[in-house]
Amino acid sequence: MTSELPPEFIVKIDYNMCRRCKRCVMNCSFGCMHFTDRVVPEHKLCVACQRCVTFCPEHAITITKNELAYKENANWSPETRQNILKQAETGGILLTGMGNPRDYPILWDHLLVDACQVTNPSIDPLREPMELRTFLGRKPDRLEFVESEDGEIDLATEIEPQVRLDVPIVFGAMSYGAVSLSVHRSLAMAAARSGTLMNTGEGGLHRELYPYSGNIIVQVASGRFGVHSEYLNTSAMVEIKIGQGAKPGIGGHLPGEKVDEDISKTRMIPVGSDAISPAPHHDIYSIEDLSQLIYAIKEATDYEKPVSVKISAVHNVAAIASGIVRAGADVVTIDGFRGGTGAAPMVIRDNVGIPIELALAAVDQRLRDEGIRNNASIICAGGIRNSGDMAKAIALGADAVVIGTAALVALGCRICQKCYTGNCAWGIATQRPELVRRLDPQVGAERLTNLLTAWSLELKEILGSLGVNSIESLRGSRERLRGIGLDSQTLELLGVKPAGVGQ
Amino acid sequence: MKMVMRIDCKGLYYRKQNKIIRNAAEEGETEFILDNVNGQRYIGSGIEKKIKITVNGVPGNDLAMFMNGPTIIVNANAQDGVANTMNAGEVIVHGSAGDVIGYGMRGGKLYVKGDVGYRAGIHAKEYKKQVPIIIAGGVAGDFCGEYMAGGILVLLGLNRGEGVPIAGNYLGTGMHGGVIYIRGEVDEYTLGKEVSVLQLDSKDMKVLTKHLKEYCEHFELDLDEIMSEPFVKLQPVSSRPYGSLYAY
Amino acid sequence: MRCNCYIPSGCSVSGIMSESGRRQDGNAIIKSITLMHDRANGLGGGFAAYGIYPRYSDLYAFHIMFDNIAAKERCEEYLKDMFDIVRDEEMPTRPGGAYEGVTAGRYEEEGVQPITDPPILWRYFMDVPEAKTRFVSDREYVVGQVMEINSEVEGAFVASSGKNMGAFKGVGYPEDIGVFYKLDEYKAYIWTAHGRFPTNTPGWWGGAHPFCLLDWSIVHNGEISSYGINKRYLEPFGYRMELRTDTEVVAYLFDLLVRRHKLPIELAAKVLASPFWEDIDRMPDRERRIATALRQVYGGALLNGPFSIILGHSRGMVGFNDRIKLRPMTCARKDDMLYMSSEESAIREIAPDLDEVWSPRAGTPVIGELDEGVA
Ligand code: SF4
Ligand code: SF4
User: Fold this and answer.
1) Residue A237: closest CA among A359, A135, A311, A167
2) What CATH number does residue C245 fall under?
3) From the CA of C341, how many Å to the nearest CA of chain B?
């Protein structure tokens, strides 16, 4: 069947400006640019990844939407019609990458932060101490002390393992396979420099990154790729992945063509074979099974590392999270429906799950109501775009936030959503060596470190304006948030008063 | 013989007391002795005349605030906010002083015999020929010299107990002008990130000796003995410490 | 009438204690707090006193405020069910009374400001029936009843609920409140006082300091910027924040940390005004382990924002400041007496010659304890 799909984008080249250097041809990883006697774009292949635009020395390229491809219609958007055409031509599930792009309300943008005036002073974050240090892990409800032989007071309570973060931001789980080794290297180096953690995702940990063990969360997912006891112990924390915000209830699939020598070694599967992550863990069909896996991991790591359980934000998230804490998890990671992915069925990504703001508020409150909030840390993932979102998430009750998409954008990602093709022009979601080389891990690490530095400075500004000098005084302090343009039920769920109402 | 006006301040509300002083100063009175002072605020505040006030008792907060010329001698401890935004004159405290002394001080002298509290000399600044000078004989609390933009602050650390540091943490944090002289050593970790420790040169020694000589005369201390221990100097690394704080 | 709006406030605090347990009347504490008249604005003042009811020292002394007779009747119905009331009586007061002494603290021309419009003030000396405490301790039981009355019995408010102690507070300048309550007729070994500078007009007596629960009393200068999380931290433990004043959380936090979690007071103070990580990192091993654990486990209890607080309890008095000392506090000693105040002059006013005067470092508690075997 010949395709009737009109091109989504039009690549315009200003031939007066073009000096025929062919950089665009070399840079386009989607095969859209050809050179005959001049550069000729094949519009249909353009994904608007902006690589050529960025690297054209003459700024001769502009990419525009193919506006008139579909006649205007408020009901039948171009995207809807394009998708129907694609499915009519192929009979397949629509695949996509990155997070939910739809226009659902973003509640972060309906929350506002308080500040001090007169009755309590704001604090100057540049000159006075401002503390962001955060510990992830299970805490007891109370401490007990004994008088030791020398008459001094000593701690009697054994505290379970805690992971220290110098900034309350950890990098999201992105597997080696879905992203390139350059990305993993950049993340690991930046995590080490900033005093935080990167997350292996479900594809194992490349040997080269073993020295970064103190800054790594190793994930155990349903596929169990690359999971062995040395892997589990080469970490600061172990995470059981139940779900992912972008595709709750869905497994994963790394096509065999991406499984090269290195990935094969890391995942411990033969070169060229498909890496399939089943939708559920087949040893977890219920909460007591989860507990069994948690303790299996604790045994294997000699109770030296906190165990996190990551779930996607679904309707019943609060009750699930409570069960997870009671099952023995030390950290609960909740991933909202705007979280990213390397590949997901579009219908799932765009329609399943709930916003992280509501999920987080519900989980934090539920754990408090049950008196078990101290027993686990909450990590909030899926849709954190800037330090403002982070501050609001912490005020709603998160111990730390995750950045995945934001970290990739810092590395060059243009959110073209073509990660599943393996052709990422920015060397991120690809294993093609010539593309992977485009991302220099040294540069990547520097960009990520800068991003974390900038966000921590901004978070300190917010703390200072709130008149507090330590992150624990923001954490869960919903009194310092107000809602704007939210209905009363949403406000109630968020545990936040409407703007204009005092304390 | 010069006339001295003596006021018994027992039970006297600060507004009354200060009004008596202001009116008398207007009429040419130049010297005052205030007895039984206890907690009266704003003594000497805003006065422009070169009068002398001796305070017997503990003065209240904001002693010598906005003061522009007088000399005040306190024969007791002083509370918070001494020499707040002071422009000119002298305050001599024969005891210790509280928190936030010399806030935004732009000129004049503040000599304290004993210790000073938190945030001493915060945002002191120089303007043209006006250089504020704060000397404390004892130790200082945290945030000493915070945001200091000008002036001279001296800590002597005399008579301090075993293990008591001469200054608290965040010493000179946010400092972007002026100089702090410290008699003895400071631990690197107590310093704000904007300052560095330097050795004194001959110019420093001259300045320091000049002021300490005067200080010693007030409190009958031995200058040679004070100068017998080495000093260090703290100065801001840059007058624009936050140049790289912002993106583009 | 209860005010349901949040009221930030400025304020003065003062506390005196005889470590040997000598009891003295309320004149000195009134004199001390009066000197700081200008730190208050006449919208709230109060005192806590320990050792005032030696004859009933085994009974819980409830000081209760009622909006009207109906509220009193409702509340008494409830009390009868829950306690054995050994004695109850109207609080002795001097209606229209006001402080008349001369002090540098206030402007004579301002004249006296008699206390007007008091609520019905009644006190009850009560025992906890044995049958009620089969599953909880009697202290826990009393806490529950105080929470219940304050949130469920409309028009009634328990101002204090400890043994051999009481709170005396209301709307007005503290010195006038002190005269109104006839504090010159009580004798206590610990007195604390508070002059309040709220930023709007609540006109509600219960909102004044001290804030009390069991024998804890708190007077507090400053505002707690971490109120939001402190409140959410306390709620799962059964505390109900009814007053919307941040001071309330301080009393509950002490109750939780010291009574229920049995932390030594020094460590409880380290929870509420914890050392900075920078300082913790430099501590010797054991100290560092303790400080780290306290911050990890009790982060929700950290008090942030400017404050100086005097905590009273039956065996002592504790003063401490916020972590960067944004509110003032001076302490002093003379013989067996320990003094704490927002200003040194307020101490000198009642004890001109002191053995020792110092201002405590930020976050470092000053702890006064009754001598062993006293009271
Ligand atoms: S990169 Fe720009 S200048 Fe070079 S060939 Fe392409 S369009 Fe022309
Ligand atoms: S990672 Fe690459 S392919 Fe995926 S959205 Fe970003 S730029 Fe596009």
Assistant:
1) A135
2) 3.60.20.10
3) 12
How far the first Cα of chain C sits from its last, in Å, is: 37
Contacts of A153 in chain C (CB under 8 A): 264, 267, 290
Our CA angle for C175, C179, C180, nearest 5°, is 115
Task: Tell me if B63 sits within 8 A of B99, measured CB to CB.
Answer: no
Q: Is residue C7 part of a domain?
A: no
What domains can be seen in chain A, in order of their start residue?
A: 9-92 (3.30.70.20), 145-498 (3.20.20.70)
CA distance C284 to chain A (A): 13
Return the ligand number nearest the Cα of A25. 1
Q: Where are the beta strands (DSSP E) in chain C?
A: 12-18, 24-25, 45-50, 60-66, 84-90, 120-127, 156-160, 165-170, 187-188, 190-195, 211-213, 216-222, 307-313, 316-321, 330-334, 337-341, 356-358, 366-369
- Pocket residue to mutate for ligand 1, from A15, A16, A19, A59, most atoms within 8 A of Cβ: A19
Can you tell me whether residue A421 is helix, strand or coil? helix
Q: Would an 8 Å CB–CB cutoff place A153 in contact with chain B?
A: no
Structure tokens at A462: 């917010």
Whether C331 is a known active-site residue: answer no
Domains of chain B as residue ranges with CATH: 1-38 (no CATH), 53-236 (2.160.20.60)
Q: Which two tokens stand for residue B202?
A: 């001959």
pLDDT (tens place) for every residue of chain B, 248 residues total: 467 999 999 999 999 999 999 999 999 999 999 999 999 999 999 899 999 999 999 999 999 999 999 999 999 999 999 999 999 999 999 999 999 999 999 999 999 999 999 999 999 999 888 999 999 999 999 999 999 999 999 999 998 888 899 999 999 998 989 999 999 989 988 998 889 999 999 999 999 999 999 999 999 999 999 999 999 999 998 767 676 777 77
SS3 C228: helix
> Between β-strands B149-155 and B133-136, what pairing exists: parallel, antiparallel or unpaired?
parallel
Contacts of residue A473 in chain C, CB cutoff 8 Å? Answer: 225-226, 229, 302, 304-305
Nearest CA in chain C to A136: C296
Closest CA to A112 of A382, A472, A388, A354: A388
Give the ranges where A311-386 is alpha helix by DSSP (H): 317-326, 346-351, 356-369
C-alpha A22 – ligand 1 centre gap (Å) = 5
Cβ-based contacts of A125 with chain B (< 8 Å)? none
In a domain, C363, yes or no: yes
Closest CB to A127: pick one of B146, B245, B247.
B146
Note the pTM of the prediction, 2 decimals.
Answer: 0.91
Decide if C375 is inside a domain.
no
| For C348, nearest residue in chain B (alpha carbons) | B38
Question: Which of ligand 1's atoms lies nearest the C-alpha of A19?
Answer: 3
Range of the domain at C277: 12-369
Tokens of residue C346, six digits: 């307020």
Does any CB of chain C come closer than 8 Å to the CB of residue A117? no
Beta-carbon separation of C361 and B143 below 8 A: no
> What distance lies between CA A428 and its chain's CA centroid?
14
Beta partners for residue C60, in sequence order? C126, C163
In total, how many domains does chain C have?
Answer: 1
Q: Taking CA atoms, what residue in A is nearest to B247? A: A454
Instruction: Point out which residues pair with A199 in neighbouring strands.
Output: A173, A217
Q: Quote the CA–CA distance of C294 and A155 in Å, as a whole number.
A: 10
Residue A476 touches chain C, beta carbons under 8 Å: yes
A408 in contact with ligand 2, CB cutoff 6 A: yes
Q: ipTM of this predicted complex?
A: 0.89
